[in-house]
Amino acid sequence: MTQAYCDHCGRPMGDGDHASCLAARELEPPRYCATCRRRLVVQVTPTGWSARCVEHGTLIS
User: Fold this and answer.
1) In DSSP terms, which residues pair with 59 in a beta bridge?
2) What is the pLDDT along the chain (61 residues), one digit of tens a residue?
3) C-alpha torsion angle, residues 8, 13, 14, 19 (rounded to 10)
4) Count of CB atoms situated within 10 Å of the CB of 44
5) What is the pTM of this model?
């Protein structure tokens, strides 16, 4: 499944270069749902992270 939106900045994937977003995502959890662009509820723990979209469910590191 391809991403419609960048999960770091929330902009459409076809809108500019997302190289800095990809670099940031190596160290940080996603902030936006890649499917619907909603802001995610993110919880960071010492062992990882979880990010939840109201519409599309939870991602876990």
Assistant:
1) 51
2) 578 999 999 999 998 899 999 999 999 999 999 999 999 999 999 999 999 999 999 999 8
3) 50
4) 12
5) 0.87
